[in-house]
Amino acid sequence: MCGIIGIVGDRPVSDRLVEALRRLEYRGYDSAGIATGGAGVIDRRRAEGKLDNLIDVLDGAPLPGTIGIGHTRWATHGAPTKNNAHPHATDRVAVVHNGIIENFQVLREELIAKGHVFQSETDSEVIAHLVTDGLDQGQTPQQAAAATFARLHGAFALGILFSDEDDLLIGARRGSPLVVGYGDGEMYLGSDAMAVGPLSNRICYLAEGDWVELRSAGAIIHDETDAIVEREIRSSSVAAEAIDKGNYPHFMLKEIYEQPTVIGDTLNTYFNALSGKAHMPPMPFDMANVPKITIVACGTAAYAGSVAKYWFEQIARVSVETDVASEFRYREAAMPEGGLAIFVSQSGETADTLAALRYARSQGQHIVSIVNVPDSSIARESDVVLPTHAGPEIGVASTKAFTCQLTVLACLVLTMARARNAIDDAREAILCAALAHVPELARDVLQHDDRILSIAGDMVDARDVLYIGRGSLFPIAMEGALKLKEISYIHAEGYAAGEMKHGPIALVDDGVPIIVLAPSGPLFEKTVSNMHEVIARQGQVFLLSDEAGLKAAGDVPHSIALPDVDAFIAPILYALPVQLLAYHLAVLKGTDIDQPRNLAKSVTVE
Ligand code: AGP
User: Fold this and answer.
1) Ligand 1 center to residue 301 CA distance, Å?
2) Quick one: which of 520, 298, 319 has its CA closest to 401?
């Protein structure tokens, strides 16, 4: 999952390639590089690590040229070194690639036998050599490129630059998205609308299997049979939005603090303050008769789905299955005809989630997606899109997108419960009133930041941290553990509190902090019993509950009193302190909070 950009025109491209890479860094930041061509040579600059390193290289050795390609990498094959950084090049061709070439070993051996010399450990480099091989045999760039695409197995979005062509870039996509941008005397190629958005507001999403010849005056698009085709050009609303951290030291902290506002913005779309009821846009199916719901997503978005499973089953009385997309897509799940499949994704580009969506479609499901990027691949392939209104989320650790996903799901649950006559008016009024108060309650929860910082100080030397909760707080325990792992690199696990005695309690000693998520409600006493089992074994417990819960729990040395709320909305509010705890621990550890090691914001490879 890398970001790619290409520009062909008659003005220098280097600066604009780098600016586009800045917008694409969310796809990976292991290395970055750009290449220009057209004057008989391929000229490249590449650097290991963040884009700033490439900028330093370019400061010392600027790159001229009016045609070029650029790449920001999340390493799959080959270490994140300069040598493995894209563009990969021969003396005739340079290539940027997002995806994985599954048969690269076979192709590489074949090309080595023909005398090609490889410089990297990547799967991508074979593409540059295959195209070069075609050119060496007298093929045109178009013929060499088309012949190469036919030999590749796996997923790719590609940008190809030629040493001898000053007005031709070739792009191609199979499995990975690719966008063409139309400018005035200039054309663009990019991984997504964000890459080309500020350069052009007229874009075209290439269809699966398409490849494109891009010249400064326009584009010729071919389908997978090489026939010339027309694709819709649409206007893009992605602007060159200035995204900054404001007065916050990190995007993650800013995004945590934006939650009261963006949850409110999301509620404004799906909740009518006058009627006091949740509502949804028209659905092309009857919500009252959905036989089953399947919710599929990855990572944090999957935990939002897991919370919603509790809600749908308890409140709307409909059977729900949840799965992570990487498992779901290959397990040939049996799905009843006419079922509802919900896909949750901040980016809307997660490759596994998109593949799972396509499987669900093949099984006759109605497809609803909850995404934060309305023009994303997942949104474009859905029957109904329910956008979250979290605004751009830059920190790799998902925070505000998660609570906005929960907000949309809560509104969907209430709407479906009403459609199915599963809820009476009085209960609906209580749950709706609770939901309407989430923004102000979230503000109250954030007031505990100093206390959470001091708890983080008590935990900074921990090697392992456990999070426990029951019911809809169990997914929040897993989310808390995921947040901590990904940004502080402290090992953490989230468990159903009742499962501790079936194994994990063996880990407990006085060096293992245990975060207990136990709002008052039907499961409170059970969770507190599990907490005491841990305390009895010298576990260092940190209890998150409300005033009534803390009183009932007895003597617990470390605790935070969160607002007293209906159990329905507790998972949304309890997500905030676990985000803040992970954040403060990461600050104390000195890690790279917004761009943690080995990760990328959008995971576009399987
Ligand atoms: C969360 O903090 C993660 N970085 C990650 O688990 C993320 O939620 C997952 O990759 C799914 O991404 P998506 O929402 O863009 O599909």
Assistant:
1) 6
2) 298
